[in-house]
């Protein structure tokens, strides 16, 4: 299987806050070119110095990202998507399609894959990289059919005793006419509930955007993990801004108050752990990012394998039931 | 015809002597029918003129359903805290305080157990007046406790939904209430304790995409708005006006997601009949 980003040139696209780094990189590139053309062999030292400078700037930039900047990284057009991870990580993969009722939703993909010799059922949101793909994938916004396909694959995995790994990357469940007619709410609700009953280990990883019920519809698991530069919350910063501030202008503030980054969610005990990304984001080194994700999956599956199905289910339910903060519970 | 002519122009009565009709005596339905509030009260808050179901809260539903309005409320003191120190145009704590003062409620749901036509029943009923009936940690926790009570006492559960969805000001916490309530309902289902979900106007977002759609019986009041996304969002997404009756209870019934629609005036009788049938061998 071959991996292809199918977009742009060699240089990754830069976000606004990455511009100073990009400028240095450009300088570095031109220096290297001169050296290659043997016009200036004396530049070697300068190149080394500049490389160090870039590295230092990159480290300091990425240590101090705002929440909105993380949201931007989570949506970076070169960020690896579900199929990219599967391409990097699986030795074999057989894609499985359809909800067995009305269609095959392009926004959710799934199938059986082999990782380190183990068979795993993979399910994930899928975004597209160009206009045509984006349309086919509906920008990663699933319809009820997608959630039903996901559920079918989960039940299949349970039947054949295969662990489940889900990748979450969606700006939300699709808010369309047909989606409502086909029961978007009911489809998501059933997924959430059924995922609590699955007898096999379930690992859920937020690899990009985790927007609301559309994310949660495939994100109930024994382990819920977030990649470093992702977000997960009840609403996107833009929609939050439009509802609470009556304007799209407050998305950065909304991101701040929603506390939606991996770090925030871990501090709130709403996820189990954070998976570190390569410096500069997963898109800077997709294969490196996939290696890390693969290691985490294997490690977690080993840990979860030590429990019985009943233990896992009980722990899963207990974990989610503890979520929430209230006052006045004692004086009934 | 001199008496016909106004001799002095303008209103001359001082404001202090102005006579006004008392407020809130009359209710105007969306179709423009005028109903006296006393008539509404006697009619389960349904307009006898056009059948319009007026939005009511937990106080009225408890009155309508529990025998002699007798019930025991669970966790009446449970309140939201502000775990994220959320501030938008105003601080969340202030919103909470204002809502509590305005509604005399602690949060957007009340949970109680009692009897309905002699049958034991746990009711969790949402209050739309409280920040749009939004679901935060309190709503999730109270539903969880209601289910615990139903499980422990093997008592059927009725959840009356009336909500715009999850409460943004509790962000991730409110999202996870969807999972929390769904997991508890799974336990209830495994114990084979009946759960009836009554969807009332409106039931959307995180509430419809979790407990409200998970009933053994999903039922709704006539004309209630039921959906995942709100109509405004859908209109903006598809760039077209929505068909008439889209996302109404009748529409949702037609598409197969409801068991039946029930007139509120027959609610108690219908629920009792259903539960009685389940208990008879």
Please tell me what the overall shape of chain A is.
globular
User: How would you classify the helix and strand content of chain B by structural class?
Assistant: alpha/beta
Total separate domains of chain A:
2
The proportion of residues in beta strands of chain A is 15-25%
Instruction: Let me know the average pLDDT of chain B.
Output: 94
Topology:
The complex is a heterodimer of chains A (332) and B (281).
Chain A (H helix, E strand, L loop, with lengths): L18 H18 L7 H20 L3 H8 L7 H8 L2 E4 L12 E8 L2 E8 L5 H7 L6 H16 L4 E7 L6 H5 L2 H14 L4 E10 H5 L6 E5 L3 E3 L3 H8 L6 H8 L3 H6 L5 E3 L10 H19 L4 H13 L4 E2 L5
Helix pairs in contact in A: 1-2, 4-13, 6-8, 10-11
Chain B lengths: L25 E3 L5 E3 H6 L15 H8 L5 E4 L4 E2 L11 H12 L5 E8 L2 E8 L10 H16 L4 E7 L7 H20 L4 E9 L1 H4 L8 E4 L10 H8 L10 H6 L5 E2 L5 H13 L2
Parallel strand pairs in B: 6-7, 7-8, 8-9, 9-10
Antiparallel strand pairs in B: 1-2, 3-5, 5-6
Q: Could you walk me through the main structural features you see in this protein, from its secondary elements to its overall organization?
A:
The complex is a heterodimer of chains A (332) and B (281). Chain A has two domains: 14-64; 70-321, 2-enoyl-CoA Hydratase, Chain A, domain 1. Chain A is 47% helix and 15% strand. Chain A contains 14 helices and nine strands. Chain A has helices at 19-36, 44-63, 67-74, 82-89, 131-137, 144-159, 177-181, 184-197, 212-216, 237-244, 251-258, 262-267, 286-304, 309-321; strands at 92-95, 108-115, 118-125, 164-170, 202-211, 223-227, 231-233, 273-275, 326-327. In chain A, helix 9 links the parallel strand 5 (202-211) and strand 6 (223-227). In chain A, helix 10 crosses helix 11 (251-258). The N and C termini of chain A lie far apart (60 Å). The model of chain A is unreliable at 1-11 (pLDDT under 50). Chain B has 281 residues and is α/β, with parallel strands linked by helices. In chain B, the strands form two sheets. Chain B has a seven-stranded mixed β-sheet, sandwiched between helices. In chain B, strands 1-2 form a two-stranded antiparallel ribbon. At the A-B interface, helix 7, helix 8, helix 9, helix 10 and helix 11 of A face strand 4, helix 4, helix 5, helix 6 and helix 7 of B. Strand 9 of chain A pairs antiparallel with strand 4 of chain B.
């Amino acid at each position: 299987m071959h991996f292809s980003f199918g977009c742009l040139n060699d240089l990754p696209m830069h976000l606004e806050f990455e511009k100073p780094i990009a400028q240095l990189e450009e300088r570095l590139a031109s220096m290297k070119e001169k050296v290659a053309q043997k016009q200036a062999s004396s530049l070697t030292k300068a190149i080394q110095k500049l490389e160090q400078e870039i590295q230092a700037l990159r480290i300091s930039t990425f240590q101090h990202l705002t929440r909105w900047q993380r949201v931007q990284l989570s949506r970076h057009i070169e960020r690896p998507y579900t199929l990219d991870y599967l391409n990097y990580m699986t030795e074999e993969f057989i894609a499985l399609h359809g909800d067995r009722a009305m269609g095959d939703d392009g926004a959710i993909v799934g199938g059986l894959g082999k990782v380190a010799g183990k068979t795993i059922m993979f399910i994930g949101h899928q975004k597209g990289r160009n206009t045509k793909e984006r349309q086919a994938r509906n920008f990663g916004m699933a319809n009820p059919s997608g959630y039903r396909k996901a559920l079918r694959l989960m039940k299949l995995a349970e039947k054949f005793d295969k662990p489940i790994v889900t990748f979450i990357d969606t700006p939300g469940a699709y808010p369309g006419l047909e989606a409502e007619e086909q029961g978007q709410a009911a489809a998501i609700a059933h997924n959430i509930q059924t995922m609590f009953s699955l007898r096999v280990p379930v690992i859920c990883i937020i690899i990009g955007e985790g927007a609301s019920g559309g994310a949660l519809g495939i994100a109930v698991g024994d382990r819920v993990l977030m990649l470093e530069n992702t977000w997960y919350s009840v609403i996107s910063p833009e929609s939050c801004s439009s509802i609470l501030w009556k304007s799209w202008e407050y998305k950065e503030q909304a991101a701040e108050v929603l506390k939606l980054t991996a770090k925030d969610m871990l501090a709130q005990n709403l996820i189990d752990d954070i998976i570190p990304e390569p410096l500069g984001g997963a898109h800077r080194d997709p294969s490196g990012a996939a290696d890390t994700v693969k290691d985490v999956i294997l490690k977690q599956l080993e840990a979860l394998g030590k429990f019985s199905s009943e233990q896992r289910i009980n722990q899963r339910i207990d974990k989610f039931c503890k979520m929430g903060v209230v006052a006045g519970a004692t004086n009934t | 015809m001199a008496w016909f002519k106004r001799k002095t122009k303008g209103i001359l009565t001082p404001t202090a002597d102005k006579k006004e009709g008392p407020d809130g005596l009359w209710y105007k339905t969306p179709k423009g029918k005028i109903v006296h509030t006393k008539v509404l009260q006697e009619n389960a808050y349904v307009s006898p003129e056009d059948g319009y179901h007026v939005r009511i809260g937990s106080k009225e539903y408890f009155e309508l359903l529990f025998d002699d309005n007798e019930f025991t409320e669970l966790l009446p003191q449970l309140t939201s805290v502000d775990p994220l120190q959320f501030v938008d145009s105003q601080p969340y704590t202030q919103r909470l305080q204002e809502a509590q003062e305005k509604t005399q409620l602690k949060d957007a749901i009340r949970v109680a157990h009692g009897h309905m036509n002699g049958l034991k029943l746990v009711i969790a009923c949402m209050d739309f007046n409280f920040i749009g009936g939004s679901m935060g940690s309190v709503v999730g926790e109270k539903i969880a406790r209601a289910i615990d009570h139903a499980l422990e006492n093997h008592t059927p559960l009725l959840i009356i939904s009336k909500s715009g969805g999850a409460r943004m000001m509790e962000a991730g916490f409110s999202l996870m209430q969807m999972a929390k309530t769904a997991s508890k309902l799974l336990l209830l289902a495994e114990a084979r304790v009946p759960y009836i979900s009554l969807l009332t106007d409106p039931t959307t977002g995180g509430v419809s995409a979790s407990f409200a759609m998970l009933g053994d019986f999903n039922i709704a009041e006539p004309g209630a708005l039921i959906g995942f996304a709100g109509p405004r969002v859908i209109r903006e997404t598809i760039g077209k006006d929505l068909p008439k009756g889209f996302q109404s209870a009748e529409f949702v019934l037609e598409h197969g997601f409801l068991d039946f629609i029930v007139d509120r005036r027959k609610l108690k009788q219908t629920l009792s009949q259903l539960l009685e049938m389940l208990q008879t061998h």
